[in-house]
TrEMBL record:
Gene Ontology annotations for the cellular component aspect, listed alphabetically: acetyl-CoA carboxylase complex
PROSITE patterns: BIOTIN, BIOTINYL_LIPOYL
Protein source organism: Laceyella tengchongensis
Protein's job: This protein is a component of the acetyl coenzyme A carboxylase complex; first, biotin carboxylase catalyzes the carboxylation of the carrier protein and then the transcarboxylase transfers the carboxyl group to form malonyl-CoA.
Keywords associated with the record: Biotin, Fatty acid biosynthesis, Fatty acid metabolism, Lipid biosynthesis, Lipid metabolism
Domain Lipoyl-binding span(s) in chain numbering: 89-165
Lineage: superkingdom: Bacteria
Protein's pathway: Lipid metabolism; fatty acid biosynthesis
Cleaved signal peptide residues: none
A molecular-function term among this protein's GO annotations: acetyl-CoA carboxylase activity
Protein name as it appears in the record: Biotin carboxyl carrier protein of acetyl-CoA carboxylase
Single GO biological process annotation from the record: fatty acid biosynthetic process
InterPro entries in the record: AcCoA_biotinCC (IPR001249), Biotin_BS (IPR001882), Biotin_Carboxyl_Carrier/Decarb (IPR050709), Biotin_lipoyl (IPR000089), Single_hybrid_motif (IPR011053)
UniProt-listed Pfam families: Biotin_lipoyl
């Protein structure tokens, strides 16, 4: 992959803090498009012809109060997340919206489990977004303390996936 996950995270952070609504970059045949309109959408794919099949629109969700498209919806921190902040543990977060997978295949062992030691380039999981499997690296050295997400669960941008005690 031509982009490292930390590069994509930094792009997302910079664009989120700016007034730019859409950003596109091409590096060594890999294209990244980031759009800000409502929920963040990000795609990382090799450039190749793609056919899109239109789908029926999903019914609109019922909201008690309208949300501003510039303000992301943030859930209240869970007890585990609060404990992580208290213990100064590093959170490995999802760089995109997608489906979390602990292993490269349904019958394979998980990339990591609680108690495993990781390095900065250790693959800890996959987040599938738009039929693309994106390997997520630890980006820190330490020990996996807690897996916060179930296999096959949908994850949001910035959602904590793992807690790591750094060394």
């Amino acid at each position: 992959m031509a982009f490292k996950m930390h590069e994509i995270r930094e792009l997302i952070r910079l664009i989120d803090e700016s007034s730019i609504e859409e950003f596109e970059i091409d590096k060594e045949g890999t294209k990244v498009t980031i759009k800000k309109s409502g929920a963040p959408v990000m795609a990382v794919a090799p450039q190749a012809p793609v056919s899109v099949v239109p789908q029926a629109p999903a019914p609109a969700p019922v909201q008690e109060a309208p949300a501003s498209p510039k303000e992301p919806q943030v859930a209240a921190p869970t007890k585990v997340e609060e404990e992580a902040e208290d213990a100064n543990l590093h959170k490995i977060v999802s760089p995109m919206v997608g489906t979390f997978y602990r292993a490269p295949a349904p019958d394979a062992d998980p990339y990591v489990k609680e108690g495993d030691t990781v390095n900065g380039d250790t693959v800890v999981c996959i987040v599938e977004a738009m039929k693309l499997m994106n390997e997520i690296e630890a980006e820190v050295r330490g020990t996996i303390v807690k897996v916060l997400v179930e296999n096959g669960q949908l994850v949001e941008f910035g959602q904590p996936l793992f807690l790591v005690k750094t060394t």
